[in-house]
Each structure stands twice: as structure tokens, then as C-alpha cells.
Prior knowledge:
This protein is α/β, with parallel strands linked by helices and 354 residues long. 44% of the residues lie in helices and 14% in strands.
Amino acid sequence: MKKRIVVLAAATALSALAFGTMANAEESKGLIGVAMPTQDLQRWNQDGENMKAQLEEKGYEVDLQYAGNEVQTQVSQIENMIANGDQLLVIASIEGDSLGTVLAQAKEAGIPVIAYDRLIMNTDAVSYYATFDNYLVGKTQGQYIVDALDLENQDGPFNLEMVTGDPGDNNVNFFFGGAMDVLQPYIDAGKLVVPSGQMTKDEVATANWATDAAQSRFENILSSNYADGTPLHAVLASNDSTALGVVNALAANYTNDVYPIITGQDCDIANVPNIIEGKQAMSVFKDTRALASKVVEMVDAVMQGTEAPVNDTETYDNGTGVIPSYLCEPVAVTVDNYKEMLIDSGYYTEEQLQ
Ligand code: BGC
């Protein structure tokens, strides 16, 4: 009697399992691995959530992982994705140069890879790249400073400092490069000067894009170059986490009546109130919903064996050749248009920004 019950239970469990597996196989269009760098910064949480929701809506299962900004953690997560049979990988890398070995395994296993937001360097395993127009992000920031200081008509000289991001992030070359292409002629003409003398990409870098690292570097700049009352007119900050570090440093260490024009990027919730209060002049809005939906289109196309949408086949060479890319459009946001861009568009609610 006892034995029969056990057998029956086992049979029920087995058929439930078989049924479950069949139902899943029928429902799912495939398992997609999504590797995001960190949950520390707001945007990657949004990117991850948008990707998961939009992929699931299209019928995919999603294996979403965040790596706490640790390269080795991200490598292990990708190894697991390959071992678990993920059929396509979408990766926002922490360090563009550190995934060659693990992506060789993906290629060997026939798993396509899409680079998300940041290009993955020196590997031929990447099929597509989707991002925002990163060079235009930098140019928009640089042009904002030029217009705000009216550098076409004013001689200055105006004092400028610069803060960019992690040197291992390929985007930094475009953000900083784009901004400097706009600003350098004015530096050469003597209309802009950089009192700290820190002007190369490495000198102005911020490891991991961390707010506290940007803040402490900026505190040093202020105490060495501005403590005597020298005015600071503009700060090129490549994104909002670094802009926040600059604003914090200024709050405690700068008293001049001239408050600098500070740029940013991402329209983070922490920064928008600063834009409204005039502590940060602008940010570059990159609607992560738009990027996610473009990547989901790419995933779907690759999974169906068709061509993915691209609009740039020239700009992003990862060292093995140009990676076909889709570039979404970044938009400058200031106190004048933040309501339309961020609230009316449904990106944030008014309450979130208070
Ligand atoms: C992204 C930015 C972000 C930065 C820090 C860059 O690669 O493009 O949007 O602010 O990383 O996470």
C-alpha cells in the first residue's frame, strides 16, 4: 500500500514535470542572458528592468545579472550563462577589454552577443552594438559650455575644469573626445583656461564613475587652485554621478559668487533637483526605454535569424573591425525642458523628483 502511494506520487510528479517543461518550451521563445555592470547607479537598474520587461513581453525568458562593478563577477556570470544554455547574451560591460576569453567560449558555443551601451573591445564574438550617440553626448556638453559662456563673442578668459569617467569604459573616449573637439579651439585661443592643468583623459578620469572619487579629486582641485578666490566658470562633467561629486565638493569648499556651469548625463533622479535649483546647468537625457526596445528588436531579429536594425556601420571599431551599431539620440535637458522630457514623457513622476 505504502509502496503504491510512493509510485503514484512519483508518477504524478513526473507528469507534472513533463507537462511543465512542455508548457515552458511552447511559451518561451528562448532564454536570453542580460549582464549589467552594477546596481549602484540608477540607470543600470532601469536598463535591466526595461530589458527584462520588454523581452518577457515578446515571449523570451530572461536571466538578468548585475555584477557590482566587479569585472571577475561579470566574467563568472557570463560563464554561468553559457553553461546554463542561454541562447543569446546582451552585455553592458564593466571594462570593455576584459571579456575576450569568456566571449571566445560564447562564440565556440554558437551564442551570439550584443554589446549594450558600452562597446566590448578586442573580441570578434560581438555581433551588434546598441548605444546612444556617445560622441554627440560629449559634443552636446561641450557646446552647452560654449553657448552658456558665449565664447563666440566673449574673450574671457574663463576657468574650466574637467571630470570624466572610468578609463576602461570605451564610451569615455567618445564623451570626452566629443566635448574636447568643441572646447579645445577655445582653450587654444586662450578664452578657456584650466587652472589645475589637468587636461588629459587619464588626469581627468574617475575610477568606476564613482561620485566620491570625483568629489575628492575635485576637493583637491578647489583647495589647490581656487581657495584664493579665483572664480570657476565651468565644469565639464561627463555624467551625473560625477557631476554630483563636483556639486558636493563645491558646496563645502567654494564660496565665490560666480557659480560654475556644470554639465552631466543620464538625468538621474538625484541630479534633476539640482538642475531645478540651478546647482547643475544641464544633463544629457538618454531614454533607457528607447535603448532597451531597440536591443529587444535586435535580439528578436538575431533569434529569428534575420538582420537586426542598425544605423551606423562606421564609428565603432572594437579592434577586430567595425561592429554594426544602432545609435539612439541623446537630448540636452535643462530647467527649461525637464518637465516635457522627463515628466510628460512618463520617464519620472513629479513626486520622484521632489
Ligand atoms: C554610460 C553612462 C553612465 C556611465 C556610468 C557609461 O558607459 O553610457 O550613461 O553614466 O557609464 O555608469
